[in-house]
Amino acid sequence: MAEKTVKLNEIGLSKEDYKGKQTTLCLGCGHNAIVGQIISACYELNIPPERLIKVSGIGCSSKAPTYFMNRAFGFNGLHGRMPSLATGALFGDTSLIGIGVSGDGDTASIGMGQFKHVTRRNLPFLYIVANNGVYGLTKGQFSATAEQGLALKKQGQNRYVPVDIVWEAIAGRASFVARTFSGDPQQLKALIKAGIHHRGIAVIDVISPCVTFNNQDDSFHSYAWGKSHEVALHELSFVPPVRAIKVQYEKGEALEVPLYDGTHIILKKLAHDYEPTDRANALQMLEEANDRNELITGLIYINPKQKSLFDLYDLPDTPLNRLPNEKLRPDPKSLEEINNLMF
Amino acid sequence: MAEKTVKLNEIGLSKEDYKGKQTTLCLGCGHNAIVGQIISACYELNIPPERLIKVSGIGCSSKAPTYFMNRAFGFNGLHGRMPSLATGALFGDTSLIGIGVSGDGDTASIGMGQFKHVTRRNLPFLYIVANNGVYGLTKGQFSATAEQGLALKKQGQNRYVPVDIVWEAIAGRASFVARTFSGDPQQLKALIKAGIHHRGIAVIDVISPCVTFNNQDDSFHSYAWGKSHEVALHELSFVPPVRAIKVQYEKGEALEVPLYDGTHIILKKLAHDYEPTDRANALQMLEEANDRNELITGLIYINPKQKSLFDLYDLPDTPLNRLPNEKLRPDPKSLEEINNLMF
Amino acid sequence: MAKTQLKLQTQKVVNEFSINIATINGSGSQTANLTLIRSIFKMGIPVSGKNIFPSNIQGLPTWYKIRVSQAGYLGRSQKTEIAVAMNPKTFGDDLTDLVSGGIFLYADHIKEPIHREDLILCPMPVKSIVKEAKPPRELRDYVANMVYVGVLAFLLKVQLETIESALDFHFKGKKGPIDFNLSVIHDSFHWAENNLEIVSPFQVQPLNLTEGFNLANGNTAGGLGTIYGGMHFVSWYPITPATSLPEAILEFAPGLRKDPETGKDTYAIIQAEDELAAIGMVVGAGWAGLRAMTATSGPGLSLMSEYASLAYFVEIPVVIWVIQRVGPSTGLPTRTAQGDVNQTYYLGQGDTRHVVLIPGTVKECFEFGWKALDLAEKLQTPIFVLSDLDLGLNQWMTPPFEYPDEPIDRGKILWEEDLEKIKDKWGRYLDLDGDNIPYRTVPGNQHPRSAYYARGTGHDDFANYSEKPEEWEENLDRINRKIESSRAILPKPEITTRSGAKSGVIAFGSTDSAVREACDSLQDEGLTLDYLRVRALPVAAEVLDFIREYKRIYVVENNRDGQMHSILSLELPDSAPDLVSVSHIDGMPLSADWIKAAVMEEEKS
Amino acid sequence: MAKTQLKLQTQKVVNEFSINIATINGSGSQTANLTLIRSIFKMGIPVSGKNIFPSNIQGLPTWYKIRVSQAGYLGRSQKTEIAVAMNPKTFGDDLTDLVSGGIFLYADHIKEPIHREDLILCPMPVKSIVKEAKPPRELRDYVANMVYVGVLAFLLKVQLETIESALDFHFKGKKGPIDFNLSVIHDSFHWAENNLEIVSPFQVQPLNLTEGFNLANGNTAGGLGTIYGGMHFVSWYPITPATSLPEAILEFAPGLRKDPETGKDTYAIIQAEDELAAIGMVVGAGWAGLRAMTATSGPGLSLMSEYASLAYFVEIPVVIWVIQRVGPSTGLPTRTAQGDVNQTYYLGQGDTRHVVLIPGTVKECFEFGWKALDLAEKLQTPIFVLSDLDLGLNQWMTPPFEYPDEPIDRGKILWEEDLEKIKDKWGRYLDLDGDNIPYRTVPGNQHPRSAYYARGTGHDDFANYSEKPEEWEENLDRINRKIESSRAILPKPEITTRSGAKSGVIAFGSTDSAVREACDSLQDEGLTLDYLRVRALPVAAEVLDFIREYKRIYVVENNRDGQMHSILSLELPDSAPDLVSVSHIDGMPLSADWIKAAVMEEEKS
Ligand SMILES: Cc1ncc(C[n+]2csc(CCOP(=O)(O)OP(=O)(O)O)c2C)c(N)n1
Ligand SMILES: Cc1ncc(C[n+]2csc(CCOP(=O)(O)OP(=O)(O)O)c2C)c(N)n1
Ligand code: SF4
Ligand code: SF4
Ligand SMILES: [Mg+2]
Ligand SMILES: [Mg+2]
Q: Which residues on chain D are in Cβ contact (under 8 Å) with C570?
């Protein structure tokens, strides 16, 4: 009996049900790892694919949504303008889960403006930046996150200081900001789960090497550099609703961050004794790590209490896109009154 | 003899020579104060008007350049896109001084992307944001810097958390970041002078009340609020080249910041004992001030050493726009070689 | 002074003249001007008011041009019979603009030279009257404007009770301001009564021609039409002269669009960070099954190009109002034009051609407001509604807004149960009905076969990525046929015929009343013209028939290059030579006089 | 197998056939393909190569289509005589596309069914040959492609020494790679020699028709032309297929544009954060007296609309290269089209109409590269150079680039001493010479009267803000006259006449060779056509004369709506009915066969 052999999650779906089209990204592209962890995370979180929408801008990274969850609605929008697309789309049915995959060019170069404004509005949305320091799809020009001095074929040396997406997200008042690495699948998956359950914008800056154009061992966005310089802030795990636990602060213990829906993020402390709840402190920590030439990964800032965009509106429980016509058009009497309001 | 009565600066120009057209801004508009201090600063710095270019985007604030220095070239560009215009223009003659006046809408709403990228490139440019929390020229809608909960005619209540221009400038790696207040002309003038002499981008976020649309006493961008909540970080003055002085750090003393051209900024310490040289620390300070509900003003961050955009190029001393034609077109021989390079 | 006056007595002109009121913006003359035009309107006399204002908030010259016309000509008149000069800066020009025999009212504290002998001069002791009234400091300038209201009331014989009801309306019945302003108006009226020896040749006499009409502007109407069209989602970025349209929605939606059951909002409005985001949001919303709209003007329209091209190609319903102002570039932000016809029609890269509705009256702004939302979802494509500053911001006489005569049309949306029925035949871009309009599903649909992946890149009938030449071409041709098919369902042109007309006029939008006036007076000159007003692009068959019918057709428009003339020329190459472009742009609404002169010029050649 | 072959012997075809090489992108077939086409070129035989690639970096189907034609027909051919199938995914299609009697080469490890009987089949033992060669791991796939080079060399009789020189060029003389690849090619050649019983009916024979020609692509030429045009400033944002133009500048400028005296760069290049910034930077630079250029494609062009409208109105010289790809929207980013003619010509809100140069050959890309910079400063307006993917990225036979035959023209710039001369008469927008082109000053000018305030809003002749109707209209009309006057100085059309032609063809850009080929074969069908290639907009008088001359003119273009056809129809309403649009778009370069068929179809009707 075939069924037996297929593992199913609590809603009776197999991993297959979470897959998308065959990837057309390069062999070994960091973005493939992100796709894989999104699939696992959603499978393990028992998310019905139809309850999720996936969006992106333009770039190799922005192709990622094609490769997971065929049964979810998706929109591959315009370069740098995924945030506005996602904002409008989620108003259609605010109960849906929104996942976006963007690139460093898509977010930090052309997309900077929309990125900052979507974080500011705290749209409930998982915003993944597949950050490789280059424009992959246009064949290897510097993106805004490329480190100063980086040398690439045809492009010479990068003149400018890089944009730090985590700094920008925090300055932009994102309520959930993390950094991780395609080479650290466990942490990546845990962060994706937490991000999905966070009510508000969850920005995950994933260092995701471009093996074709920017994977030189000494380049900041390469596998080699990541592997040898990654320092995890904590051992991170996501737990579905459990008995409420008081957050404790003694050293060595785990820090538990409760999310709005009763789920928790558990941060088991490692080398650093770090609490991701203070914006300025987070940046301080990053500066120091920079000086130590470390690639800090983990949950860098979170504020589960910040009102999400939809908390700021007074929308009905029925999704707007399912409201019956009679609820959309005021009655004739009201128009008479309006006409009387005119002079 | 009339001459006698006219005061002249060291290059023999009178204040008149630094004036522009008659202002058409509202009576009492904070932007007028900015115009006034730009005029005074440039007069006192003995800047030949022809050595300066003034640019802006669109907005009441962006009209400001019309009202100072008729003898300087100016360009009133597109909404939110002053930075790109300024970048291209200054390449024409990198020895010119560039001053830009933008608004909070022009910079923090539509202009966010270009603002972040011009700070990152560290263009030698004085970037003044006349920040009033509203769109003045379009008659009083919320701008991205309007505080959450602010109520305005026709607009209802502002839902979103504000963009903090100083936070953004620092996150964006601007090398000179200040905040001041139209109601504090002395500090404003000193900062303008320092900004002009800083080799790199100098962002000054000037709280500049819109008396017509957003000057309610309890509104963050009003005169009343500013006057009652301003806390100066230091007493700031700008001094032309003097005998080199070692920077001293004992309390109570003045902190001297030397700029690339031998001029100095002197920061006489006040209540706070603050050094504007650490990005994360600056943000920490701002957070605390926020909690105390203070309007912190002064020089918040500076890094005089950061390479400016033009330091990253290898341009001739002759301005590009004055290069003789023969320097622009390679000789015929070279083209033969090129043709031979083709298959 | 009196003597000069008497010599000037021209014979009485009733209900046919224009008043030009010159003030300084930010000085609060708006209330005075509205009071004046409303009082005249209340007297049953057709009247229109046009605000000629600067791109600035306070201190620059502003004019308010009131046209009184019992003949019902409410377009801009080039002539001014009465001038009110409150602004020293423009005193000279205001003086020269007056017709000979006109009345020149001015605040007597303005000490500018007056050279003309052929006018009825009327200095007004504004300051002293205001002083008498003892207004609170901050109200002083503002009240000063009531003085000319009073003086004009006396000269033109405007009924004081209509003035009262105008103020009552303006101040929503608040007794304080009503009485105070009224008293100033009375004082001024009596001053005039007691001190003016002049008799105005221009007067108003009560009629009943405004019964069943309101005074309103197109942007308010458009906003209301959008609300009654069942809009779900509005994203916008402020820009003159479009701003007041979304602001009308902000004002009226809360009262009209709360779900009585739940008390919740049945819509959402978001002010975007710019137009790139505004269009991105409405496209996202339209994709997600929301009736979404945005409004902008030329500069913002440029920023919307790329997403418009995507929406056309991905087939997403959105409504985009374009309130035209003078371009190119930032141009004259507070002046009117019809210069974005081309850009709107072809907006975006590649072979795009959009559906454009063109209201010509305030009533149509309301009507197209709701129709656009239906058409967008029916055709699954962006619908542009092309208006302009003159129609959008100025005061027009209009019949009451009519309740939609058709139910809301959501177009071909498939929900779970629908998908069950059509089984696996469905594909997002599969033309099941042979009408070039495929069926669509929207996010939230829980059917396992409902999802598809939208993209601006090439795709097959099932929305799969495709670079196949034939698939690209078939798809793009189908979209073109879809747009072509809209000709049959878009608003038909409005045609006015006269017996014996050999030539015709084609116009569109806000120039309607000026064109009608021009046609009348050309008739007097012996040139009979039939008139067609285009109300949508691509044009209906009726437009083509009309063009074929005449040996010569004047295409009148308020732009430099004759953009509509070009569009029509391409529709019928054989008739192209018969189409004569009559266009110009200087920031002012076209006047009947200009149109007439231009046409007669062409007739000569 | 041999038997089938012999039965198929068709008679010999020399130097007139096409090879379609199907591989997987990222597998390094580019080197093999270039080697092949260069060797044939070296043999003196006209040849062209077109890369049909996906919008993706690795793993998807790619085709390289080589056309050998001693007749010099180098546009895309619809027929394929020889197919090389290295990609299992497209094996079937590649098989069906072959003409009957064609040769089908394929890697013998691909085990796909082969149904056709009418082909010469040639399985190649790719793996074993590669194995023999013992390449380093990472080079394996890459080397595999050399196998078909060797086998084709044998079948077509390509000279091994020309292959050697092709490799020598490719690897810039580096012995290692040259020898290694050569050895694989030899091995394959000998394998074929010893194992193939088939004789190819298609062969190459040495000629001397490529002497004095190079192989190059349009983007490299455009970049070099820009460098020789004295460009000061480039700002750009990557986008296919424009990217390689700025990248050519990045590659060549350092060697060509260092000031020998100071050793400094006489130019600056900056990669902007997006196209909004790229255009903003070049506009700022153009204003500041720099010869500035940017390059983009459809989506980026949309983002440049607003600043383009400003540059037109403020009269700022900039050069904008538009390398067209398939739209609307993101469309087919790696496929060619001519669908942005309209958007480019009218880019921006309001009444804008731009000057557009349209190169049709690689040589013209170089020429227009420098000319555009002169014209921009001469006319003080944006100059667009409209190319496309086919011309920009593919390999074309071209005569060497010609050194500019005119000195650099900076247009009417006034420096300190110039201002001294003309005293106070100067105003930025004052038309001193009556040629509609005012004089300009640029920042850095130290003359106290040099400064002016540039703005996208209304202004008078002295650049002061103005909302005056007449000043607005006069200024905008002057700008229009300026653009009109450019007709006389822009590149003239290229006209090819044949005796007895009653009809004509008009085309532009990359379709040139396909159109010429079509004209020849239409001639054989008895239809004689004169041919005009438009090289600039607005069009020259010669274009209008040409149109007037024939009772029927076909306008051939690679887009859906016949955009050039529209533009020409508007130029001459009386001739509009004579203009027949022949257009389509599917991502492929137009072929002579398609053009011929389409024209003959029209002739029937
Ligand atoms: C408006 C616009 N400009 C330029 C492009 C070309 N383009 C496509 S993807 C891309 C950059 C992608 O870089 P990134 O976002 O880092 O994604 P990656 O490919 O590196 O994963 C660019 C510039 C485009 N599609 N649209
Ligand atoms: C592309 C574009 N969109 C919208 C506008 C309309 N507009 C003009 S000024 C302005 C806002 C100005 O606000 P701010 O920058 O804060 O300047 P302020 O007037 O408050 O000083 C807007 C939205 C425009 N000119 N261009
Ligand atoms: S080019 Fe780089 S980013 Fe794109 S798919 Fe390949 S590895 Fe990934
Ligand atoms: S509206 Fe506001 S910002 Fe504009 S000029 Fe007046 S006070 Fe200043
Ligand atoms: Mg990238
Ligand atoms: Mg503001």
A: 566, 569-570
